[in-house]
Write a structure and sequence with these properties.
539 residues, Immunoglobulin-like, 3 domains, ten-stranded mixed beta sheet, eight-stranded antiparallel β-barrel, 4 helices
Length: 539
């Protein structure tokens, strides 16, 4: 006891001596010991956000998309802003940023404050910004600009040329892949509208169209028709005619004179503008067989790059190489539910038994429990990654060909909580089940005409997808949704303003059991796994 007391007293005296000595001046006039600089950490970070044109009638701004940010923090010398779009800026304080995605959208903004020693703190802000669509010009302004404007077929885009049912406002029968009609004689055509009401068609000596109408209206030639009754490279000189425009039944319409036509000739001079922006229009005409024909025209230079190669900027990915165990919460969330739709029988969990990252792969496993029920997992990027248009690549291996399994790689409209399915839109990149003989099935669901049935295609070219990894891709543009396996297209769906594929969607990876596609579950089933090697999004 006395020894411990003596030790405490002695320690106190030593500390007191050292404390007094460290603060004493150097009697010899020297500098003495220098303490290393201490770490400086910012505090009290705050961010002021001002959306341009905000008032009681416009709570999300005036539509310009301009937002001003001002950050302040104690002991901070610089700031970094991440705007929730993949864009970022550095500043000593204030920055401006213009959002460009049309509509009212919410963004998660992250601001960092840095000290002189490069220590940082951050703060997250959520903002909702309204960006007005391109101001719709009059039909004449759209077609001819201030004096004249030249249009050409946008051959680089999938579904630039398509047809469908007369009673629909989008292609339903057939769509052309990019540059697939290169030898037909109409990709080099140019169509010029002039404000004085004249129309010039530069044919470059050949055109493409229905043989019966070309021969009847422009004279019979030695050119032969193909199996569809079309004539490719029909000889026709440049010509000039007139045009007029009108709005009828809330539709923008073009009427050409004197046998004038746009692109593929079907004997008609009347066209409807189905979609448009400043530099692109989707035109529609109906032939005498009640088939609707569609062409995407552009006033810009036509790219020589096919549609699938136009998206090169990697904006989001997970290759599952840098972590193990639970999914990355910054990129994914679980949907945990006891019951699902489509007569599925599994419940979904966040358990590592059902989903985990291991050996550089995401593994989603469906399990039959001891009581005979089934568990699995469903993960999504909702409010982590919501996007419009781009290329999505998912490298995956399917589970074994066992009756009852139903894994899927797909997207759902981010507005699904306010707009009921299927009006919100659904894009199935890959579904795998006994109903499609365990092959690759790609489908889109939308409200008019398809509902739960969907526009679907199964490719039977791949019979080892349960044994090897393949890359399942979607190329999504305002013109088309094109589905690929290992860079080979197998399904195309033409897009238009009438379809719900022109707003934000999010990605879902799930493994269902039973249900409408999975069917009766094999009695010997115990567990199966879908493996994901990577997910990449390009824009």
């Amino acid at each position: 006891m006395l020894n411990r007391l003596f030790f405490k007293i002695f320690s106190f005296i030593v500390l007191l001596f050292l404390s007094c000595s460290s603060g004493a001046e150097d009697d010899g006039g020297g500098a003495g010991p220098v303490d290393p600089p201490s770490e400086i950490i910012p505090t009290n970070l705050s961010v002021n956000i001002s959306i341009e044109g905000t008032d009681s009638n416009n709570p999300n701004g005036d539509g310009s998309g301009l937002v001003k940010f001002t950050a302040s923090a104690t002991n901070a010398v610089s700031y970094s802003y991440r705007f929730g779009t993949g864009d970022s800026k550095n500043s000593s304080g204030s920055v401006e940023f213009t959002y460009t995605d049309v509509g009212t959208k919410t963004y998660n903004v992250k601001v960092f404050a840095y000290s002189s020693t490069n220590n940082s703190i951050s703060i997250d802000k959520s903002i909702t910004v309204y960006v007005k669509p391109f101001a719709e010009p009059t039909i004449l302004e759209l077609l001819a600009g201030d004096s004249s404007k030249t249009w050409r077929i946008n051959a680089a885009q999938d579904s630039h040329f398509s047809n469908g049912a007369q009673d629909k406002q989008y292609p339903t029968y057939w769509e052309a892949y990019s540059f697939s009609k290169s030898n037909s004689g109409f990709y080099d055509d140019e169509f010029t509208f002039n404000v004085n009401g004249t129309f010039n068609h530069k044919t470059n000596n050949t055109v493409f169209g229905k043989g019966v109408h070309l021969n009847s209206d422009f004279g019979t030639t030695s050119s032969t028709t193909n199996s569809d009754g079309d004539i490719e490279n029909y000889p026709l000189d440049d010509y000039e005619t007139t045009f007029s425009v009108k709005k009828e039944d809330d539709l923008d319409k073009i009427e050409l004179g004197a046998k004038g036509f746009l692109g593929f000739y079907v004997g008609q001079q009347n066209y409807t503008i189905a979609c448009s922006d400043e530099n692109n229009i989707l035109i529609r005409t109906v032939d005498d067989s009640d088939i609707a024909w569609y062409l995407w025209l552009t006033s810009e230079t036509v790219s020589e790059i096919p549609s699938k190669d136009q998206f090169t900027n990697l904006v989001w990915f997970d290759d599952f190489d840098d972590y193990t165990g639970a999914i990355d919460p910054d990129k994914w969330t679980h949907e945990v539910r006891e019951q699902w739709y489509n007569n599925e029988v599994q419940s979904t969990t966040s358990s590592l038994d059902n989903s985990k990252v291991e050996d550089g792969k995401l593994k989603i496993t469906a399990i039959k429990t001891a009581n005979g029920s089934f568990t699995s997992a469903r993960i999504r990027t909702y409010k982590k990654l919501d996007f419009t248009y781009g290329r999505i690549d998912v490298k995956a291996k399917m589970p074994s060909k066992t009756n009852g399994v139903w894994p899927a790689i797909w997207l759902l409209g981010s507005n699904y909580e306010s707009i009921d399915w299927p009006a919100c839109g659904e894009i199935d990149i890959q579904e795998y089940a006994h109903t499609n003989s365990f092959n690759v099935q790609s489908t889109v669901h939308q409200p008019e005409g398809y509902a739960g049935q969907g526009d679907s295609h199964v490719t039977y070219d791949y019979n080892n997808i349960d044994e090897e990894f393949h890359v399942y891709s979607l190329v999504w543009t305002k013109e088309a949704l094109t589905f690929y396996v290992d860079d080979k297209p197998h399904h195309i769906v033409g897009n238009s303003c009438a379809l719900p594929f022109n707003w934000d969607f999010y990605l879902i990876l799930n493994f269902a059991m039973g249900g409408d596609m999975g069917g009766d579950i094999d009695s010997s089933f115990t567990s199966e796994t879908m493996e994901i090697d990577y997910v990449k999004v390009f824009q």
